[in-house]
């Protein structure tokens, strides 16, 4: 049981790291000249970053920013709740609160990545952004969605044993 709990803790920390990287790092869309994320656009040398392009996207980008931030918050709170429940729950009870928070985090990541995917043409038709491809932060967001979903289901199924 101790090995299983160790695996779950490491899996949750890896998921949180993926969410942080996907939210903060500047690589949701890339081409030869610049890279952009949900916060700003940086030119290829990385020395000059502007947020005018991102502000041009309107309310969709604000929704993506909000849901990615919420996913990180839910994931961190879920980890804290899991550790608290680990010591406070009676034997045989399930980790429903931690699982529910992790599933909410998964839902937020899915919403953000889906909006970004749907609005990709709108976002990248300006200037030189139309030729390029998705960056690794976008891919990490989808991987984080799968990890948070798996983690949430694991918490709900997991029972506290001796």
TrEMBL record:
<keyword id="KW-0472">Membrane</keyword>
<dbReference type="InterPro" id="IPR004032">
    <property type="entry name" value="PMP22_EMP_MP20"/>
</dbReference>
<keyword id="KW-1133">Transmembrane helix</keyword>
<feature type="signal peptide">
    <location>
        <begin position="1"/>
        <end position="16"/>
    </location>
</feature>
<dbReference type="GO" id="GO:0048471">
    <property type="term" value="C:perinuclear region of cytoplasm"/>
</dbReference>
<keyword id="KW-0812">Transmembrane</keyword>
<dbReference type="GO" id="GO:0000139">
    <property type="term" value="C:Golgi membrane"/>
</dbReference>
<dbReference type="InterPro" id="IPR050579">
    <property type="entry name" value="PMP-22/EMP/MP20-like"/>
</dbReference>
<feature type="transmembrane region" description="Helical">
    <location>
        <begin position="136"/>
        <end position="158"/>
    </location>
</feature>
<protein>
    <recommendedName>
        <fullName>Epithelial membrane protein 2</fullName>
    </recommendedName>
</protein>
<keyword id="KW-1003">Cell membrane</keyword>
<keyword id="KW-0963">Cytoplasm</keyword>
<dbReference type="GO" id="GO:0005634">
    <property type="term" value="C:nucleus"/>
</dbReference>
<feature type="transmembrane region" description="Helical">
    <location>
        <begin position="95"/>
        <end position="116"/>
    </location>
</feature>
<comment type="similarity">
    <text>Belongs to the PMP-22/EMP/MP20 family.</text>
</comment>
<feature type="transmembrane region" description="Helical">
    <location>
        <begin position="63"/>
        <end position="83"/>
    </location>
</feature>
<dbReference type="Pfam" id="PF00822">
    <property type="entry name" value="PMP22_Claudin"/>
</dbReference>
<keyword id="KW-0539">Nucleus</keyword>
<dbReference type="GO" id="GO:0045121">
    <property type="term" value="C:membrane raft"/>
</dbReference>
<keyword id="KW-0732">Signal</keyword>
<dbReference type="InterPro" id="IPR004031">
    <property type="entry name" value="PMP22/EMP/MP20/Claudin"/>
</dbReference>
<dbReference type="GO" id="GO:0016324">
    <property type="term" value="C:apical plasma membrane"/>
</dbReference>
<keyword id="KW-0333">Golgi apparatus</keyword>
